[in-house]
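Two quick folds needed for the group meeting slides. Do the first one here.
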Amino acid sequence: MNFTAVHPNGTVDAELAAAIAKLKTDDHGAGAVNAAAAPPPVFDVTRYGARPCHEDHHGGGLQCQSSTAAFRAATMLAAKAAATGQRAEVLVPGPGTFTTGPFNISTRTTLTIEADAVVKGSTDVAEYTIIAPLPSYGSARDGSPPGCPKDGCHTRFQALVMVPPGSTDVILNGSGTLDGSGAFFWAERDHLKAGRPHLIEIHGATRVEVGGLTLLDSAFWTLHPVYSKDVHIHDLNISAPAPSPNTDGVDPGAPGKQPPLSCRSSLSADVR
């Protein structure tokens, strides 16, 4: 199996490279892909090194380590399995809070976040790939903070969960929580060198279902389906404090019809 730790911008993710090297050499460990396993294969992020946050017993509060490499290893292996025609699942087990940078969920893959599990966006902006604005927008749509040109940021940080272009038959579900660590990005908005990330972006995909999750404190728009069709969004609890900037609940982008919605929102700007 061939994997890569090279970002779209050409840089190498050293942590992810190390995780992949371990997987390649561990033919009998929990991370190995077993062709004889009953479908669909499940890729539990904790098998690849994801560790939940824990309380510091000396009064230091909640202590978290980055699980970005583990999430990306699990999702890459799931994509490889799904490329053979079978369905794959990326599992975030509960209870526990896991801190990670952005990752992709692509064709024939289900992301399941179990009850009492929280996937929390990293506050280390170095873990976020900087990507181009959407073609129909021309900018990140994040206003004109001092760190950006007067006509707005022309690049943006990748969404925490990205369904990338060309993906089909994707499911994002469970009873757990996606937390965008919005408070950090709202406070740092004037100092960021790119537009704030969405919590979930469904970009140029077909047959995508998002349901059951709690979506909390997105840095920017919470759920952004764009250039996509056959998107089913249901039974979500979407929340951010009223003063938070631009935390739209579901913000569908043209072209394409607005997806069917059945959600509960409490935001600065709700479904658009």
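Then this one, please, same format:
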Amino acid sequence: MSCLPVELVAECPGDVSRILELESENQTFLDLAEAYETVTAEIMDIETGIDPVRPSYLAQLQRQRDEIRAILHALLDA
């Protein structure tokens, strides 16, 4: 990733150095961080009305984001 994952850093401001470390050493973390940013951006577009969708799809995205977030936090805490 060419820059810090904004949403992840906003949630974990005390873990910036650990995020950078994992991004450079752990491809799984990098892939998950990118997926987290993508899903979060899509959710934000939906919630602001930019990209209207069915409520069930929004709920699915929110569950996906929660699952990714849990894995990322586990990797940060490891």
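Slide caption for protein two: The chain has a mean pLDDT of 89.
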